Amino acid sequence: MRQIFLDTETTGLDPTQGHRIIEIAAVEFNNRQPTSNTFHSYINPEREIDPAAQEVHGITLDFLSDKPFFKDVASDFVSFVKEAELVIHNAPFDVGFLNMELGKIGLDDLNNFCGDIVDSLVYAKDIRPGQRNSLDALCRAFSVDNSSRSLHGALLDAQLLGEVYIQMTRGQEAFEINFKEDSTNIKLEPINYDDLIVTTPNKSEIEAHNEFIKKIGSKEVW
């Protein structure tokens, strides 16, 4: 199964207030294993970046001034995620921004290009109720090294999310592996027929057996 772990960085929190995407990253896993295929692009948002948002990701408008516009990378992005399952932490946030950007250039919503969209935050809350489930918290909980994450960055965050999600969902995989291992490791001890005790049925037991056979007639299944 082809999975894409996706993250974005933005100029602010709300696309309906005119905020835009400034970075997109998507990391491919195939059959739960990372591949070398990634999509990553910084994007010129054509607007200012909120100071609070810049404190989170550290990306400046000056840095983005010579980067492509979303319309310039949209085709490559759509081709990369096409028909894959997308895994996104707090999916409504990123999907809302992506749908806004796609709509601005006359393209359909994201779900029309990809397969399922999985919100890893919802999944984390289901298995860790009442606990912190930020990406940093999940990295600590599942022993994923996030020491290089001093600021939010879409590419690093997508890579970390992939590692975390595989750890979070490893239970079923482990069950299947253990089942196979247990099945192949079963050791059958040879039967010692000298230890078997054979008894002969008495007359009443034979008569009861014969009566039972008559009752079931031709319905026997052995």
Strand order of the largest sheet: 3-2-1-4-5
- H and E string: EEEHHHEHEHHHHH
Mean pLDDT: 87
Give the tally of β-strands: 5
Work out the helicity level.
Answer: 40-55%
Strand content: 15-25%
Question: What are the segments in which pLDDT stays under 50 over at least 5 consecutive residues?
Answer: 174-184
Task: Look at the helices and sheets and give the structural class.
Answer: alpha/beta
What is the global morphology? Answer: elongated
Q: Count of DSSP helices?
A: 9
Beginning-to-end CA distance, first to last residue: 42 Å
Rg over alpha carbons: 29 Å
**Major sheet details:** 5 strands, mixed
Keywords:
222 residues, alpha/beta, five-stranded mixed beta sheet, 9 helices, elongated
SSE blueprint:
Elements (H helix, E strand, L loop, with lengths): L1 E9 L10 E10 L2 E10 L8 H7 L3 H4 L5 H12 L3 E4 L2 H14 L12 E3 H8 L7 H7 L12 H15 L1 H15 L18 H14 L6
Parallel strand pairs: 1-4, 4-5
Antiparallel strand pairs: 1-2, 2-3
Structure summary:
The protein contains nine helices and five strands, in the order E-E-E-H-H-H-E-H-E-H-H-H-H-H.
Overview of the molecule:
By secondary structure, the protein is an alpha/beta fold. Helices cover 43% and strands 16% of the residues. It is built from nine helices and five strands. The protein has a five-stranded mixed beta sheet. Strand 2 and strand 3 form a beta hairpin. The radius of gyration is 29 Å and the shape is elongated.
